[in-house]
Specification:
Structural class: mainly alpha
CATH topology of the largest domain: Na+/H+ antiporter like fold
Number of domains: 2
Distance between the termini: 94 Å
Number of strands: 8
Largest sheet: 6 strands, parallel
Radius of gyration: 31 Å
CATH architecture of the largest domain: Up-down Bundle
CATH class of the largest domain: Mainly Alpha
Helix content: over 70%
Shape: globular
Low-confidence stretches: 183-208
Mean pLDDT: 80
């Protein structure tokens, strides 16, 4: 008996290891390949799932169970997003949350409900379908926005606000669905007998975990509010003592265990009171946004979030029912595209209503046009409650999966549209009608200081920047500037490159800086060029391109900070300034000397002569500064 149990456990373990090998192997092969082709990691995960599921048949019925586990990646993602948002920032989003998000959910529900009734479904089924398709994929959209660096754009923030509103809307949707059920919903069992479309085991399990079952309405409200208050109070008052307690163990893994415990416990509590676990963990993240432990939590949870989300996307791909799709492809694809077109039209209208511009408008529209993972939850709940029948439920599940599969392609379409709109903006540059002694290319934090100083000294400047918003803001403060790409020869000529005495290149992008310096030096060999450099390697590139003076963007501010440190370590202002100046002169001389040993395209760490000479120069600097300091100390002693 014992041997039989051991054998069964071993078989289960071998099966688990085999399945884990398949899922991880598919991800490792498909995702880097998709990323290299510019398709993004999400599409790579989805394609990996399709390969191991419908195509090769390496995984089977366990995919759906695994998907419920992998959905915890969405919960972790919202917790991490909450850590990035202070409560004040969340309050500032209230217009988008309530207005834009509320309108999107409401209008989409009504539109798809109307389409469902037009297709012959009764009103209750159509309402359920409208709720299911009103939601978008938090997992895919936020993952893609983060990868592409679009979260901080106006379109990205609006997209996130709507996703958060949808997560909140899931709660009343789950409460409303049982009211749409027909009195008795029976289906035929495989043996021909009748059975109700409910799951007694799940129901009993849910009742065992629920804190609100059997309570009156006011009791449910009080318990729910109490759970939310518990999350807020625990995040505010318990985190510090608990982190101190864990710190005493001096075990790195305990921090990871605590981070997981916080997320899991919050999700369980929210589930027990009938709230969305993702919404609850987001709230917990917002509460901890100002905590000194925020970065520790982020670093501990990030790997788990990435793996679980990747696993979730794989299960979505593996769960696509291609048999149902190929049975009537025109109908299924028509439903999928119809849903996405309806949602896209509503989203585009809302983008216009709330003033989103150009690229942000298309990001908002294309990013949210799909159905989402919470739709799986609503379909499952609707089947249990008898709102939907099994056939319709399977069709809706397939439509959701296909729309999620199409979404990465829509983001690729957005990239194409974004590039075209950027080129159109560049073609619509300002007509430069001024010529100045000094041309300043780029008016960000670096260029604006240069511009103000030169103008204050009585010299005329012509400022050109490719960021329209920056130029417009600059004009509000009374400074004249022109919108356009400062690397374009025609704009430089209009700005007076032929007669200017100084060109200041203050652009962020390294490639653009190098391109502009090289062109200006070729056009005007006598022009004095001052260029902004990102780092030491960029300095060497700019020397080669022909710049006269090169300013590393952090170098002077770092020198000043070092001088302040010396002054607070007991040196006089004169002594600290003298050491600062000596360091500055030595570094400039060393850079010019090292430029002769630098080779383009080769990392400086792989240039033995460069590294050896850099170490020699650093030793010389230490000796020189030490000798200066000792001389200053002797002067001080003799003077006293």
């Amino acid at each position: 008996m014992v041997c039989g149990g051991i054998g069964r456990d071993r078989a289960i373990m071998e099966s688990f290891l085999f399945q884990a090998t398949i899922y991880l192997g598919a991800a490792v092969i498909a995702v880097p390949l998709a990323a290299r082709l510019g398709l993004g990691s999400v599409l790579g995960y989805l394609l990996a799932g399709i390969m191991i599921g419908p195509v090769l048949g390496l995984v089977g019925t366990e995919t759906q169970d695994l998907q419920h586990f992998a959905e915890f990646g969405v919960v972790m993602m919202l917790f991490l997003i909450g850590l990035e948002l202070e409560p004040r920032a969340l309050w500032n989003m209230r217009q988008r949350l309530i207005g834009m998000g509320g309108l999107q959910v409401g209008l989409t529900m009504l539109a798809i409900m109307g389409a469902g009734m037009a297709l012959g479904y009764d009103w209750s089924t159509s309402v359920a379908i409208g709720m299911i398709f009103a939601l978008s994929s938090t997992a895919i959209v936020l993952q893609t926005l983060t990868e592409k660096g679009l979260m901080q754009t106006s379109g990205g923030r609006s997209t996130f606000s709507v996703l958060l509103s949808q997560d909140i809307a899931v709660i009343p949707m789950l409460a409303l669905l049982p009211l749409l059920a027909v009195p008795v919903m029976a289906t035929l069992a495989p043996d021909g007998s009748m059975q109700l479309a409910t799951d007694d085991h799940d129901g009993a399990h849910h009742a065992a975990l629920s804190l609100v079952d059997g309570l009156p309405g006011w009791g449910v409200t009080l318990v729910t509010l109490g759970a939310v208050a518990a999350v807020i109070l625990a995040g505010t008052f318990l985190t510090r003592p608990v982190f101190r307690y864990i710190h005493q163990a001096r075990l790195r893994e305990m921090y990871t265990a605590l981070a997981l415990l916080m997320v899991v416990a919050t999700a369980v509590l929210m589930t027990m009171v009938g709230l969305s676990p993702a919404l609850g963990t987001f709230l917990a993240g917002v509460v901890l946004a100002n905590s000194e432990f925020r970065h520790e939590l982020e670093s501990d949870l990030e790997p788990f979030k990435g793996l679980l989300l990747g696993l979730f996307f794989i299960t979505v791909g593996a769960g696509i029912n291609f048999g149902l799709l190929f049975g009537d492809p025109a109908y299924i694809l028509g439903l999928t595209l119809g849903v996405m077109v309806i949602k896209g039209a509503i989203l585009y209208g809302l983008a216009l209503l709330f003033g989103l511009k150009n690229k942000d408008r298309w990001l908002f529209t294309l990013g949210l046009a799909q159905a989402g993972e919470f739709g799986f939850v609503l379909i499952s709940f609707s089947l249990q409650q008898g709102v939907l029948n099994d056939g319709l439920g399977g069709t809706l599940l397939l439509v959701i999966a296909l729309s999620m599969l199409i979404t990465p392609l829509l983001f690729i379409l957005y990239d194409i549209l974004s590039r075209q709109m950027t080129e159109a903006e560049e073609e619509g540059h300002d007509e430069v009608d001024e010529r100045g002694t000094v041309i300043i290319a780029g008016i960000g934090r670096f260029g604006q200081i240069v511009n103000r100083l030169v103008q204050s000294a009585g010299f005329e400047t012509v400022v050109v920047d490719s960021n329209l918003a920056t130029v417009q803001m600059m004009r509000k403060f009374g400074f004249r500037g022109f919108f356009g790409d400062p690397t374009r020869p025609d704009l430089l000529s209009a700005a007076g490159l032929e007669d200017a005495k100084v060109l200041v290149v203050a652009i962020d992008d390294k490639a653009s800086v190098n391109k502009l310096v090289r062109y200006a030096r070729k056009t005007r060999p006598d022009l004095h060029i001052i260029a902004r450099a990102r780092d030491r390697v960029h300095v060497h590139e700019l020397y080669e391109a022909g710049a006269n003076d090169i300013v590393r963007e952090m170098f002077d501010s770092s020198l000043r900070a070092g001088r302040y440190a010396l002054e607070n370590l007991g040196l006089s202002e004169f002594e600290a300034a003298e050491l600062e100046q000596a360091f500055y002169q030595h570094d400039r001389k060393a850079l010019r000397e090292l430029a002769a040993l630098w080779k383009p395209g080769v990392p400086i760490s792989e240039l033995p002569e460069y590294v050896a000479r850099a170490r020699e120069l650093n030793s010389t600097l230490e000796l020189e500064l030490s000798a200066r300091q000792q001389a200053n100390e002797r002067k001080t002693e003799s003077g006293s």
